[in-house]
Amino acid sequence: VEICELVRTRRVDEEVADVTPQRVFCPLVGPENVLRLRYCGNVFGLAGLRLGFAIGAPATIRRVSALLGPWAVSGPAQYLGARALDDRDWIAAMKRTLDRDRVTMQALLDGHGLTETMGTDLFQTVRTPDAAVIHERLARAHIWTRVFDTWPDHIRFGIPGTEAGFARLRAALQKEPR
């Protein structure tokens, strides 16, 4: 059973809030029945750290804490997370880089006829009847994408983030039959 069900709250996952602040749903705390989940992952280049936090009304946080018990976060994770969250200049530079990479990714996908896109600065999801075929062929080229059981005509691409990564994806997509 999901923790939000146990404490009778709604979960708002703000994983991409740092790159899309216009999508932030709640004010800093918000209603008592809302638990905001934030993650210090992709935007900060700390995906392997698995560091995140919850924001909610004090009573909600107390209920969640009581259900979860102690949840240790290592000293190095705390140190890196605090440094990342405090480095406003680096965050601003990363947002510009991610925005540039998203534009590059959309142009790359458009150039291969994959024009029906949606997503964030961290990934692009494409609607195409060839989703499964593209997924399989890119996997053979050691490029992982995500397909969805509930949306079989959608494929999600992580944004490569390096020119070499974009070049690999571009080359693999050129091999795609259309």
What is shown here, in short?
The chain has 178 residues and is of the alpha+beta class. The protein is built from six helices and seven strands. It has helices at 3-6, 58-68, 75-86, 88-111, 131-140, 163-174; strands spanning 10-13, 34-39, 52-56, 117-119, 123-127, 146-147, 154-158.
Which strands sit side by side, in order, in the main sheet? 4-5-7-6
Rough outline: globular
What multimeric state do the chains show?
A: single chain
Helix content: 40-55%
Low-pLDDT segments: none
Order of helices and strands: HEEEHHHEEHEEH
Distance between the termini: 44 Å
Structural class: alpha+beta
The largest sheet is: 4 strands, antiparallel
Average pLDDT, rounded to a whole number, is 81
Word description of this protein:
With 178 residues, this protein is an alpha+beta fold. It has helices at residues 3-6, 58-68, 75-86, 88-111, 131-140, 163-174, and strands at 10-13, 34-39, 52-56, 117-119, 123-127, 146-147, 154-158. A hairpin with a 6-residue loop joins β6 (146-147) and β7. The mean pLDDT is 81.
SSE layout and pairing:
Layout: H1 3-6, E1 10-13, E2 34-39, E3 52-56, H2 58-68, H3 75-86, H4 88-111, E4 117-119, E5 123-127, H5 131-140, E6 146-147, E7 154-158, H6 163-174
Parallel strand pairs: 1-2
Antiparallel strand pairs: 2-3, 4-5, 5-7, 6-7
